[in-house]
């Protein structure tokens, strides 16, 4: 087998692809190294085992979504425009990272996956909580500016938003048709500004 140089990112992408197709438990480190035409030693330079690779895949997702949300929310625009942009960016993120997300959905939260015992679990939970805080603060601003109904707390709206994102993730995974970002964005927007709005 001809060996080639690969980056940590290459291994993350290929690992996510293989976990997504075969399932985490049925996948072996050897499957990843063969698919990349690399020696097993190259894999072990970056990861101790496939469990650590899974943890890194899930951590990377949470880190990127937190950074993307923060970037949009920090923009100097009116709340309504930022909200529309936030929805669009999240949906684009899901579409772009669907292979990684599929692994997270299929394997990351399964009982017995061993993920809760993984060293990355605490860091992932902290990132998730930071993201929820950023969203809560954003929705607090929306309530203050009159865009959202004050009968919902900002924390509740952040949770509703998270549930809605998860529902779209499920649709993206199982729906065979290409995702229409424009129509999906409208669902989000209408839910919050007509369902939760004044």
Fill in the keyword field for this structure.
single chain; 198 residues; mainly alpha; Tetracycline Repressor, domain 2
Provide the fold topology.
Blueprint: H1 8-22, H2 29-36, H3 40-46, H4 50-73, H5 79-96, H6 98-108, H7 120-144, H8 154-174, H9 181-195
Description:
By secondary structure, the chain is an all-alpha fold. The protein has one domain: Tetracycline Repressor, domain 2 (Orthogonal Bundle). Helices cover 73% and strands 0% of the residues. It contains nine helices and no strands. It has helices at residues 8-22, 29-36, 40-46, 50-73, 79-96, 98-108, 120-144, 154-174, 181-195. α4 runs antiparallel to α5 (79-96) and α4 packs across α6. The longest helix has 25 residues, at 120-144. It starts with 7 loop residues before the first helix and ends with a helix. The mean pLDDT is 84.
Précis, in short:
With 198 residues, this protein is mainly α. It has helices at residues 8-22, 29-36, 40-46, 50-73, 79-96, 98-108, 120-144, 154-174, 181-195. It has nine helices and no strands.
What order do the SSEs take from the amino end to the carboxyl end, as H and E?
HHHHHHHHH
| Average pLDDT level | 84
* CATH fold-level name: Tetracycline Repressor, domain 2
Q: Which of globular, elongated, flat, extended, rod-shaped describes the shape? A: elongated
Helix content: over 70%
The CATH superfamily turns out to be Tetracycline Repressor, domain 2
The largest sheet, given as strand count, sense and whether it forms a barrel, is:
none
Please count the beta strands (DSSP E, at least 2 residues each).
0
Distance between the termini: 64 Å
Radius of gyration: 19 Å
Show unreliable segments. none
Secondary structure class reads mainly alpha
What CATH architecture do you see? Orthogonal Bundle
What is the CATH class designation? Mainly Alpha
Number of helical segments?
9
């Amino acid at each position: 087998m001809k060996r080639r140089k690969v980056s940590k990112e290459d291994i993350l992408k290929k690992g996510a692809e293989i976990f997504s197709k075969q399932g985490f438990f049925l996948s072996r480190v050897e499957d990843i190294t063969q698919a990349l035409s690399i020696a097993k030693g190259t894999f072990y330079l970056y990861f101790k085992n496939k469990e650590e690779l899974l943890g890194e895949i899930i951590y990377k997702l949470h880190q990127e979504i937190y950074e993307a949300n923060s970037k949009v929310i920090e923009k100097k625009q009116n709340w309504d425009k930022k909200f529309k942009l936030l929805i669009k960016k999240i949906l684009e993120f899901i579409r772009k990272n669907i292979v990684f997300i599929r692994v997270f959905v299929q394997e990351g939260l399964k009982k017995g996956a061993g993920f809760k015992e993984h060293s990355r679990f605490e860091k992932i939970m902290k990132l998730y909580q930071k993201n929820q805080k950023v969203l809560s603060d954003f929705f607090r601003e929306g309530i203050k500016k009159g865009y959202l109904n004050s009968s919902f707390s900002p924390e509740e709206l952040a949770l509703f938003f998270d549930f809605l994102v998860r529902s779209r993730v499920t649709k993206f995974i199982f729906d065979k048709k290409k995702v229409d970002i424009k129509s999906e964005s409208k669902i989000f927007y209408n839910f919050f500004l007509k369902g939760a709005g004044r």
